[in-house]
Amino acid sequence: MPTNAILTALQRKTDTQRIQLRVGRIWEAINRNNKTVLHTNVEFMDQQGGHILAIIRNNQRTLIMPQLKEQSVYDISNFKIVPGPSTYRSVDMDMAINFFYKTTIQEAEDNNSIPHYKFELQPFHRVKDLVGRVKNLIDVIGMVTTIGRLEKRSNGVEKLDVALTDDRLVAAFNYSLLATVCNPNQKSVSVSGGSRQQRTITTLCSHYWTPGKKILDKASLSSTDATKTFFNIEYEPLNDLKKSLSDSSGSNGARLLPPATVHFVATDEKDVQQIHIKDVLEMKIPSGKDQVRCLCTATITEILYGNGWLYNCCSICARAVHPTEGKYYCNACNDTNFTVSQRYRVVARIKDDTGTTTVTLFNKEAEQLIGVPIQKIITEMGEPSHMDKIPAPVANLIGKLCAFQIKINNYNITHGCEEYTVTRVSECSAAGTKSPNTVDAAQKNKKNRLE
Ligand SMILES: [Zn+2]
User: Fold this and answer.
1) Could you tell me the distance, in angstroms and rounded to a whole number, from the CA of residue 335 to the centre of ligand 1?
2) What is the reported pTM?
3) Range of the domain at 160
4) Which family is it part of (predicted)?
């Protein structure tokens, strides 16, 4: 007897049943260390609104994968029900489907009786309670409000931040989430909601994981191999969200705006002001706050030499360590039992139309701009005596126009210390990162010249 329900198949526990299923998504699980395929995942959906995962091992791949296409419907006979993954589940089920030599897969006519999509949606306000829980990946649905610039790490990984809102009551609540789409397999990352002309740009992201850090009340989502983003699909909850977003902004007298492109996406982005260097130098920290973050667009004019371009740190806590009597001791770890490694600390003079100041780029931000891991430079420099020279890849920062998000604290002001820590950086002149605003500005300049 053929069945149309995954649940029935699970209860029967025999290898000889037949079931009609639609393939939802197909994706490969990748070993991040050596970029090899661990196995292939296939999500199947049934007529009852259920879904289940099938794991295709590498030795079955050439036989089975050519027979399966996303969104197509199949009659599948003779399969096994086996334990599913216990963590990072994309489908919240204890069991999974397994194919074996007796399995037959036959494409069936699609009469649309099986839904096209199935997600286990989490509302945004619930996501913060899921931080650090690794059992299930998270599905969310929301509208893209801002898109960051594509960041490229020196290991080739591309990263893009996107802010989402599921704000159903615009005036009363503001639930928004930050999602990071990371591409460990070095294919290009793309998140766009279609053309900027579109008034409502809605997205649906699925299968994110919240990493184990929670900043204040906000949690952010990180992509995994299993992450796939769907835009404007025919999916009832998405249509409902579109309608409620459109209605609530309409009743506010505003219309929905297309997503904006910004340098750095954060859910508290409104707190970070774009200012000139002159304003940085004259900044006063509001009482009750111990620091101010701001955004400055400036050109690097010089790499300062004083304290070198790197520091020695404790391999355990990454804090700076200094040798005493030839031995390194870490005050933070209260120990000598660690290896000393090096991290970037690049002090750069930056300049805009209003003035000049200095900023410090620590490891992550420095590496992002330099584009080379520090260990590679150290190896290439060879002799330790060369370490007091500024290596070419670091000197090459001179001339770069960047957006710097910097931190101004009381120490900067009370000690007259003009060495602001860069908390985020993005290169403005990098190819493919031109924002629509830059285009607008360029056109405006052209127009001004013509007039
Ligand atoms: Zn330490």
Assistant:
1) 7
2) 0.73
3) 124-266
4) Belongs to the replication factor A protein 1 family.
